[in-house]
Design a protein that fits this description.
Largest sheet: none
Number of helices: 15
Distance between the termini: 37 Å
Helix content: over 70%
Number of strands: 0
Structural class: mainly alpha
Strand content: under 5%
Order of helices and strands: HHHHHHHHHHHHHHH
Length: 439
Amino acid sequence: MSQSESNPQVQNPMRRVLGNFGLLLRGRGIAAVMLFGTTTLMARALGPAEFGLVVLIQTYTLLIRGLFNFQLFDVVVRYGVPSHDDDDAHTLQRLIKICRRVDSLVRVLATVLALILTPLIGPLLGMEQDHMILLSLYSLVLLATGNGTDIGVLRLFDQFDILGRQMTIGPFLSLFGVVIAWWLNSPLPVFIVILAFAYATENIYLSWCGRRECRQRIGSPNQDKSLKKASMDEFPGLRHFLWISYWQSNLDLVPKHITVMLAGLLLGATEAGLLRLARQFSSLLSKPAVLIRQVVFLDLNRSWNQGNPNFKLIAYRTALLGGGVGMLFVLAGYFFGEVLLETIIGQEFVAAAPVLTLMLLAATFDLTASSLRSAAYASGHTGKVLRLYVLSAFIYLTLFVLLTSWIGLIGAGVAASCAAIIPPLFMLALIHKEGHQKT
């Protein structure tokens, strides 16, 4: 194998981005098919009302976890690349130790908060006592999360094949369990247990892989007692980057989970289920958007540090590719959305078709923005990006409340599309204006 093929620092950046994206996309593609099967079977087995309850239970737990998401995978990549490229294992171990502390703390805080808020949030969502018990039990899966550091480690060491495989574990277990539950005509609690087991298992596997990779690459942290004194102050700008990443992750919750909960409060569980169903279909684009950020940030960060002229080329080409692919899905949703939903799930779910097309359009804008956001992060514009997404989230929530109250569920799709177009336009202007000069 040639040096250019084995060394990530000298490989063609665009080729490496596409190769790593292909590994993740393969895993995400398989997962998407299985999640699609899981969703359709649950919708058929439970009906709109109970399916909406499952959606609200899942969304509540993911929302609480998201409120404590510091995106430590970006921290590991942002501050770990220089140490990794310089073969400085000691500094890298200290960085990972710091991030693991944060992971351990937030998983406990998230679980405690979820349990405390259940008696307050449950009645607002129209849940009965039995449903709130299920909500509390499902919240315990949060103890298995807190693996942002491990995701960052696997990305840093270019182990995207592991991440791709991990993406299929939860969906496979969910589909397998839901098929059996559907076949046996099982009640709602059985579906909840199946989903909780699948979610916990995929997170535990991810943590195990990340820790194993650390031991193999840089040694066991238990061998160095000085790691206990590792501090964020050793990495200039880390606290600021961590804080910005935290608020950025909270803003990302708006289209993912907060609006589903709002739909449950404003329109009821059935409408929340329909919105989640539309989002599930649009995840064919929104999930690749997340994958692009995971893949391209590593190479954009390295290109920026090295002054590589490929920096802007990678960002622009990836954005154009994502936008082009997304528009094909939008057209398919517009012409075939109703037929697809009626054929696969049933006539009672056809009402989600118009929202599906608009959610696909919003996801296309997000897909276009993915590489641009990573480029802005790598070039030191995290603060500007955060303010941009604050504006976008404010517009989204304002339009969501106004339009859903006025025209119903389709208002959610209009709000999503209007808000999603803002970030890519402004970030494109930011990157073009600033050029390739470190700030």
